[in-house]
Amino acid sequence: MTANIQPQTLNEFIILQQTAFPYAKGDLTRLLNHIGVAAKIVNREVNAAGLADILGKAGKTNIQGEDVMKLDEFANEQFIRVLTSSGEVCGLASEENHDIITFNNNFTKEGKYVVCIDPLDGSSNIDVNVSIGTIFSIYRRITEIGTLPDDRDILQPGTKQVAAGYVIYGSSTMLVYTTGLGVTGFTLDPSIGEFCLSHYNIVTPEKGNLYSINEGYYKQFSPGVQKYLDHCKGKDENSGYSARYIGSMVADFHRNLLKGGIYMYPSTKKQEGGKLRLLYEANPIAFLAEQAGGLATDGKGNRILEIIPKAIHQRVPLFTGSKKMVEDVEGWIKKYG
Ligand code: AHM
Ligand code: MG
Predict the structure, then answer these.
(1) CA dihedral angle for residue 12, residue 94, residue 252, residue 246, rounded to 10 degrees
(2) What is the pLDDT at residue 217?
(3) Domain spanning 210-336 has what CATH number?
(4) Is the Cβ–Cβ distance between 279 and 154 less than 8 Å?
(5) Are 222 and 269 in contact (CB under 8 A)?
(6) Which of 15, 99, 186, 319 sits at 20 to 30 Å (Cα–Cα) from 208?
(7) Closest atom, ligand 1, to C-alpha of 276
(8) Ligand 1 centroid vs 69 CA: distance in angstroms?
């Protein structure tokens, strides 16, 4: 009789990976596990969002007379709470907070890591039951252990990330992450409440058939981006790529990662520098893209991961996905601007 093979959980997988580094002390392992715990709490709330009419809408009081928090604020609070209590993290930068958050107690000051996070990305999709995500990025602190962290810890280039990933709250919930040893995906099994290994060593196709961009802004894009989009549509009725745009970067990126494609959020006439934030949106996605064999640039030949951040909420144009497609759009921008 053969024994039943249990699915490998996120915890088991991270511990196994840690044993590849004989001197690792397990801090990063614990930190990643804590992120998984916060993700499960947020997932529970995201799943209940469709019941808002019954349970009470955000910004109002529910039937028990309690204030109902907006989902993105709730997610932010959960991640901060879990990471504060983890002891591995001394500070955090979040899309939801203007300044860096420093965890001011003796326990957290010993934390070796800082985290940059977008607790709930895809804000326009939160209330309408469309996939949304959490994006995170982990750095080793620069300031001395035992002191309070500051902006220097947060303003590090993406090449310094020790881990990054996202959680996608979709038709199923997945956590996808990298520590620089390839990209691995876990799917939440609600029956046991665990993220189980489902996508080992994700490698994105070198070239794909999907392009993802908000084409409603076509007239606001530079001539090079416009020419590339014309090219994506093909020369005749027998050619062209497929357009896919959800408006939640995590979901758009995730689909293209698995199937092959390009995700773009360029500068527009109204928003020079684009919309996406370097620290907690572009950098973690870029780390994952490169680890899966893809690329991530600003469209002008600059690798996202090498950009030196100057401000916590700095924006950056982003072109990421299958290597050949990113190289292709770069060529059009170089030629036409
Ligand atoms: P958010 O952080 O306010 O949610 O904005 C980021 C999101 C991305 O997930 C998504 O790809 C993009 O904004 C969509 O923007 P737009 O509506 O301009 O296409
Ligand atoms: Mg966001």
Answers:
(1) 130
(2) 97
(3) 3.40.190.80
(4) yes
(5) no
(6) 186
(7) 6
(8) 21
Cβ–Cβ < 8 Å for 224, 230: no
Nearest to 160 by CA among 116, 104, 110, 98: 116
pLDDT recorded at residue 103: 80
Q: Which ligand places an atom closest to the C-alpha of 119?
A: 2
Q: Strand 101-102 vs strand 194-199: parallel, antiparallel, or unpaired?
A: unpaired
Residue nearest ligand 1's atom 4 by CA: 122
DSSP type of residue 324: H
pLDDT recorded at residue 239: 83
Give the burial string for 45-71 (b: 16+ CB within 10 Å, else e).
ebeebeeeeeebebeeeeeeeeebebb
How is 134-181 classified by DSSP, letter by letter?
Answer: EEEEEEE-SSPTTS---HHHHS--GGGEEEEEEEEESSSEEEEEESSS
Cβ within 8 Å of residue 306, ≥6 positions away: 157, 158, 159
Q: Do domains 10-199 and 210-336 have the same CATH topology?
A: no
Asked if 265 and 246 touch (Cβ cutoff 8 Å), the reply is no
Ligand 1 binding residues, C-beta < 6 A? 95, 118, 121-124, 214, 247-249, 252, 275
Q: How many angstroms separate the CA atoms of 242 and 134, rounded?
A: 26
Q: Per residue in 151-181, pLDDT tens?
A: 999 999 999 999 999 999 988 999 999 999 9
Q: pLDDT digits over 53-101, tens only?
A: 555 566 666 565 666 568 888 999 999 999 988 889 999 999 999 999 9
Three-point CA angle 40, 85, 167, nearest 5°: 25
The full DSSP string for 301-333 is S-BGGG----STT-B--EEEESHHHHHHHHHHH
Say how many Å lie between the CA of residue 276 and the centre of ligand 2: 7
Question: Which CATH code of 3.30.160.60, 3.30.460.10, 1.10.10.60, 3.30.540.10 fits the domain covering 10-199?
Answer: 3.30.540.10
Phi, psi of 232 (to 5 degrees): -60, -30
Query: Which residue ranges make up each domain of the chain?
Result: 10-199, 210-336
**Entry field: residues in the chain:** 337
- pTM given for the model: 0.94
